[in-house]
Amino acid sequence: TSCVSMLKPLFCIYLFFFFFVNLHFDRVLPMLVLLRSQFLLCAVCVGVCVLGALGSLPQALPWHVPCPGRCAPTVDCNDLLLTGLPWPLPFGTHTLHLQGNNLSEMDAGVLHGLPNLTDLDLSQNHFSHVRAIAQNLSLPSLLSLHLEENHLSHLPEASFSSLLALQELLLSHNNLCSIAPGAFTGLSSLLRLHINNNRLTTINPMWFGPLQNLEVLMLGGNPVETLPEQADNALDGLEGLESLSFYDNLLIKVPSRALRRVKGLKFLDLNKNRIKVINTGDVRDMVHLKELGLNNMEELMSIERAALENLPELTKLEITNNPRLSFIHPQAFAQLSRLESLMLNSNCLSTLHHRTMSSLPRLQEVMPNTNIKYKKKKKRWSKMVKTSNQQKLLAYKKKKAL
């Protein structure tokens, strides 16, 4: 009886808004989204807390719903054609989705009352200036900021300096053609930076100075042809970087000197560039590299002697879908002692020397061209491919059995 009497007013309020919204749908839709999420969350929390106080909460309940003061709601206002921030927002909001609206500027005062906000999604809106987003914005707990598919063309100095806790910044699919040297000042906690699919034509080493903890950097989809003249320090400041993507740039050669200075790199994506030759030493002395992609290069013709050298942790190498690749030097792969997977399908290779395989003692999986003729020791090649296919079939059967 106590529970019913406590929840009855909430139910009446909900009915009132249901009929009110039918009369004024266009005006109150954003407000309804907020009230609905807040009402449902608080109703669940209040119901559980009341039952617990009456001693009716099952002791064997395998989960626990905290009281409203500790709730962490998500407010979803995606695709509502909003031109301004909804108000008021629940004080305890942790995640705010505003994707797919018509926002072009922000009232920072609306967000100042959200000290616990950790995830803010402003993607697919109409922001053209970073100052319209981050200026005077104080969100001490914000970890993730989504700004993909807006109309940003320039990042000025200290664009996000007030977001000291930020760990993820997504700026993909904008119109960025320039970034000030100190644009990322203050982002010492940043772990992931996505600036792919913009209009950047060069990489400025001064961008990365404040990003000493960065782990993932996505630079693909920009018309970058070469790194600057001081190419050996183009990626300075990224000692902790683990994953780097140059996918679909316009690189005409491997930026080898810059890459060797990124000591902790584990995953490197050079796919879909205009590189014609992988020269001796182009990918060398990257002692933590685990996976390397050299796929979808329409102009790649050859991989020279010791092009890949001293990569002791490399386990997966993909060289696929390169229609003009017709030559791999017999000693192209040197000191790849842990390589397990080699993908060579959909190239123009007609022959492959036996030394190429004999230098890879741990190789388990090979995907060759169907038209490759293996020079010498052809039986070993056939056996290796057969073993690889048998392993895949066995793994598939095990998975199906589960």
TrEMBL record:
<dbReference type="InterPro" id="IPR032675">
    <property type="entry name" value="LRR_dom_sf"/>
</dbReference>
<feature type="transmembrane region" description="Helical">
    <location>
        <begin position="6"/>
        <end position="25"/>
    </location>
</feature>
<keyword id="KW-0677">Repeat</keyword>
<dbReference type="Pfam" id="PF13855">
    <property type="entry name" value="LRR_8"/>
</dbReference>
<keyword id="KW-0325">Glycoprotein</keyword>
<dbReference type="InterPro" id="IPR003591">
    <property type="entry name" value="Leu-rich_rpt_typical-subtyp"/>
</dbReference>
<keyword id="KW-1133">Transmembrane helix</keyword>
<dbReference type="InterPro" id="IPR050333">
    <property type="entry name" value="SLRP"/>
</dbReference>
<feature type="transmembrane region" description="Helical">
    <location>
        <begin position="37"/>
        <end position="57"/>
    </location>
</feature>
<protein>
    <submittedName>
        <fullName>Leucine rich repeat neuronal 2</fullName>
    </submittedName>
</protein>
<dbReference type="InterPro" id="IPR001611">
    <property type="entry name" value="Leu-rich_rpt"/>
</dbReference>
<keyword id="KW-0472">Membrane</keyword>
<keyword id="KW-0812">Transmembrane</keyword>
<keyword id="KW-0732">Signal</keyword>
<keyword id="KW-0433">Leucine-rich repeat</keyword>
